[in-house]
Design brief:
4 helices, mainly alpha, two-stranded antiparallel ribbon, about 120 residues, elongated
Length: about 120
C-alpha cells in the first residue's frame, strides 16, 4: 500500500503548498536568492579576509595610517559600514523588487480565502 503524495487543503482553506509551487512565488524566491546569495558570499569573503589578516598579517594590520589609527582599525570599522550598507541596499531592493511581488501573492491569497 503506497501513500498518496497529493496534498489538498481542508475545505474553506487555501492550498499553501500549491501557492509555494506557483510561478509568482518561485519568481519571488528566485529574485530574493539572486540578491542575497551574492552579497552573502562577498560579505563573508570580506569578513574572513579581515579575520585572517588580523591573525596572520599583524604587521600589516598594525601599520599606522594617521595618528593612532591603524589599518586594522579601519578594516574593523569597515565591517560595520559594510553591514549597514548591505542592510540599506537590501531594504531598497526589497521595497522595489520583492514587496510588489509579495503584495500580489498576498492579495491573491486573500481573495482565494475570501472566496473559499
Amino acid at each position: 500500500m503506497t501513500a498518496s503524495h497529493t496534498h489538498s487543503p481542508p475545505p474553506g482553506r487555501v492550498d499553501y503548498v500549491a501557492v509555494e509551487q506557483s510561478a509568482p512565488f518561485r519568481e519571488l524566491k528566485r529574485k530574493h536568492r539572486g540578491f542575497v546569495w551574492p552579497l552573502t558570499v562577498v560579505f563573508l569573503v570580506w569578513y574572513f579576509v579581515y579575520v585572517l589578516l588580523s591573525s596572520f598579517a599583524t604587521d600589516f594590520m598594525a601599520q599606522r595610517l594617521w595618528g593612532d589609527v591603524t589599518v586594522g582599525l579601519v578594516f574593523g570599522l569597515g565591517q560595520f559600514v559594510t553591514t549597514f550598507a548591505i542592510t540599506m541596499g537590501y531594504v531598497a531592493f526589497a521595497n522595489r523588487r520583492l514587496d510588489p511581488l509579495s503584495a500580489e501573492i498576498r492579495a491573491d491569497l486573500e481573495q482565494r480565502e475570501a472566496g473559499a
